[in-house]
Q: What sequence folds into this?
């Protein structure tokens, strides 16, 4: 299985889609269903499609199907959502492209060294995690349903024994 596409908000959708298409070694195209200022970034292999819509355009339940509509009361630029995307470009190049666009970007360790990735903050507001080939291989080795169940069991064990520990 795979995710077919994802939609992301942006202040400048055309600029965002150009940078993301560059990182994914793909191309940018118009996305008319999202409105005249919406764009799509395709990965070079065509496996990933990101729809970039103007911030404040939200999906609403329409009469026949979901509709993109502007929302006058949209507040804030940050979001609860993020995506992790595996790319064929080395981490250094991903970071360099993001920094050249004026976006914060950095290498990060997750889980105290469990796996690494590149955090890219699109327009300084929306986080995308990019994993280069070696980062993606490590991620897929360690982040599995079986390993996650072991992690949750450890966390439950730590919580259960926390009452036995002296207070700090």
A:
């Amino acid at each position: 299985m795979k995710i077919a596409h994802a939609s992301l908000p942006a202040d400048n959708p055309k600029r965002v889609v150009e940078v993301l298409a560059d990182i994914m070694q793909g191309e940018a195209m118009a996305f008319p269903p999202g409105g005249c200022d919406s764009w799509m970034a395709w990965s070079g292999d065509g496996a990933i499609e990101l729809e970039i819509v103007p911030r404040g355009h939200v999906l609403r339940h329409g009469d026949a199907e979901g509709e993109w509509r502007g929302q006058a009361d949209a507040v804030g630029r940050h979001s609860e959502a993020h995506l992790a995307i595996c790319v064929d470009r080395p981490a250094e190049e991903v970071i360099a492209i993001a920094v050249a666009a004026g976006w914060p970007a950095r290498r990060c360790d997750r889980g105290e060294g469990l796996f690494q990735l590149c955090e890219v903050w699109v327009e300084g507001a929306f986080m995308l995690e990019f994993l280069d080939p070696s980062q993606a291989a490590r991620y897929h080795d360690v982040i599995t349903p079986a390993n996650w169940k072991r992690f949750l069991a450890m966390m439950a064990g730590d919580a259960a024994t926390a009452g036995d520990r002296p207070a700090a």
Observations:
- The chain has one domain: 5-60+67-160.
- Residues 145-161 form the longest helix (17 residues).
- Helices lie at 13-23, 91-100, 133-142, 145-161.
- The chain has a mean pLDDT of 87.
